[in-house]
Write a structure and sequence with these properties.
Elements: E1 2-10, H1 16-32, E2 40-46, E3 57-63, H2 66-74, H3 76-88, E4 89-98, H4 125-135
Antiparallel strand pairs: 1-3, 1-4, 2-3
Helix pairs in contact: 1-3
Length: 146
């Protein structure tokens, strides 16, 4: 999984009311993209930043893979939305990083009790529990506890 975070400031030349309208349109357009582009796990746009922020708009998104992010970047719908975003913003900053290169061990388990060693979540108890919870079933290691 890959995290893609983009930050913008409002472009010069717009009134506060226009900036708010443009920000709302950016939010609407970007948040529609997951229904049009495969590989987007989650996508949220924050337009109500605090005064301590040095950017006005934030895109916070998660993709299935680097390939999914690359496909998103060149997708015609993303390019269409990007044209509008570039016309009303400035000072773009972007950070992309892999979530799978972060620490994969669950911080509260030193030895994985699961016998399913071929599972991609073996030894990653926190990820395993979330996966099974979201799937509506118990992890293998918890199925036989009475």
């Amino acid at each position: 999984m890959v995290r893609h975070i983009v930050l913008w400031n409002y472009a010069d030349g717009f009134s506060p009311e226009e900036n708010l309208q443009n920000a709302q349109k950016i939010k609407t357009l970007l948040e529609e993209l997951p229904s049009m582009i495969d590989g987007i796990v989650e996508l949220k746009v924050q337009i109500n930043t605090m005064p301590s922020s040095n950017r006005d708009i934030m895109l916070d998104s998660t993709f299935e893979s680097e390939e999914a992010l690359a496909a998103y970047i060149i997708h015609p719908e993303h390019k269409r939305v990007g044209e509008f975003v570039r016309s009303v913003t400035k000072d773009r900053a972007c950070v992309d990083y892999s979530l799978t290169t972060q620490s994969t061990k669950c911080p509260n388990v030193s030895v994985c009790p699961c016998s399913k060693t071929e599972c991609e979540n073996n030894g990653k108890c926190c990820s395993c529990v979330v996966k099974h919870r979201d799937g509506g079933n118990l992890p293998f290691c918890l199925r036989f506890i009475t």
